Amino acid sequence: MRTPIARACALALVPVLAFSVAGCAKRGAPGDLPYVARDVGTLYSAGKERLDQGQYKLAAALFDEVERQHPYSVWARRAQLMGAFSYYLNQDYPEAIASAQRFLAVHPGNRDAPYAYYLIGLSYYEQVQDVTRDQKITQQALDSLGELTRRYPNTRYAADARLKIDLVRDHLAGKEMEIGRFYQSRGQWLAATMRFRAVADNYQMTTHVPEALMRLTESYLALGVPVEANKAAAVLGANYPGTKWYQQAYELMQDNRDKLALAQSPAS
């Protein structure tokens, strides 16, 4: 789900620490960068220069070297986040997540912790697959972005995270709809109903709710419970009266009004 907007946001929100050292490791990566002992300022400045030049993989390796060669310096803490950011720009999301998580494990109360949480959430978000694929990563994106908004609700990172949470929830609802429609196509009406009900109950602010209510109307009618079908159609009409989904549900209930009347009669 990588977009130019998301990348621009990450660039705009990069911490001040990236620019505060112009004047002045995670695990080592010997396969990528031979060990050459250098002072911390030289290493950090070299990493920042490569980052500015768009050489993100090399920048990440140099920031990792800061931590490897100078693990107890203040620069090591800063380099962890800059390395995570470099991995993110290189679209190496697992490494970005691992670097940011390591930063939080060692510095949980640091002032840059919100940015670390943001990088984790953003890295999961960029890996979201279309609804025909497994959605484990999507759930991880939702969880990590949600943790950021809970821990640091008033930060600029949380503001962007909330927008992405809405998109992720819509995506998860879309997956439920896809599975529900599959069950419908096989005549597995009860299984379909459970999926559509999950959308209507758990993803109420997403774009998929009107269709979910119409599909519930269909599925309940197929299961022989027109009263429940009528309830779903009524909710659809009350909340989304001008949609094509309500029109379809209304026509279905009109076609089945005799069944509904019989089900609602005292004798039944």
Can you characterise this structure?
The chain is mostly helical and 268 residues long. The protein has a domain at 1-127: Serine Threonine Protein Phosphatase 5, Tetratricopeptide repeat, CATH 1.25.40.10. It is 70% helix and 0% strand. The chain has 13 helices and no strands. The longest helix is centred in the middle third of the chain and has 30 residues, at 156-185. It is elongated, with a radius of gyration of 26 Å. Residues 15-31 have low confidence and may be disordered.
Question: Topology of this protein?
Answer:
Blueprint: H1 4-12, H2 40-52, H3 56-69, H4 74-89, H5 93-106, H6 113-125, H7 136-151, H8 156-185, H9 189-202, H10 209-223, H11 226-239, H12 244-255, H13 257-264
N- to C-terminal distance: 52 Å
CATH class of the domain at 1-127: Mainly Alpha
What quaternary form is this? single chain
Rg (C-alpha, Å): 26 Å
Comma- or semicolon-separated keywords:
single chain; 268 residues; mainly alpha; Serine Threonine Protein Phosphatase 5, Tetratricopeptide repeat; 13 helices; 0% strand
Quick recap of the structure?
The chain is 70% helix and 0% strand. By secondary structure, it is mainly alpha-helical.
